[in-house]
Write a structure and sequence with these properties.
By secondary structure, this protein is mainly α. 64% of the residues lie in helices and 2% in strands. A hairpin with a 2-residue loop joins strand 1 and strand 2.
Amino acid sequence: MSADTGTPESPLGPHPEPLRFFGTTWLHHDNGYTARRIAVAIGSLATAVAACLVLRLAHQGLQVAAPGSVVTLLMTVMFALCSALAFRHTWNGFTRRPDPDRQASLRSLLAIGFVGSLLAYFIRSLTEAPGEKLHREEYETARKQHENRTTRRSGNPSKKRRRA
């Protein structure tokens, strides 16, 4: 494994890291990549809409219980803020690797704001596979490093000095 990118390496060089729902089709945009992107976009949007309907039912249940306008307002604000933070966190995760410690501490917030994560996934899948840019940059960097190492090791044998 490459220490820099976490990409597995073999004697032939680094291999692309698979993405969820896409495998390694993101590398050459082959084997149904476009269809997968369309399916991921539709699926994430449909799931976000279904989640909003469930949240609406929960809101109506809260109104039936009549706890007061302050509690209803707090619940609405909490879901809106958590969704906004989850959107931002998910969106940033597409361009750089998230810190595992921070990820663990935000797990409950991301679970509450799952609608924001779904919307970030939907919007990103309109232009590329979510996380494709990050993985492509890491893969290209790993390939360049591998080429530099193999070039340095082998070089041109005709230009090597002979020891006396």
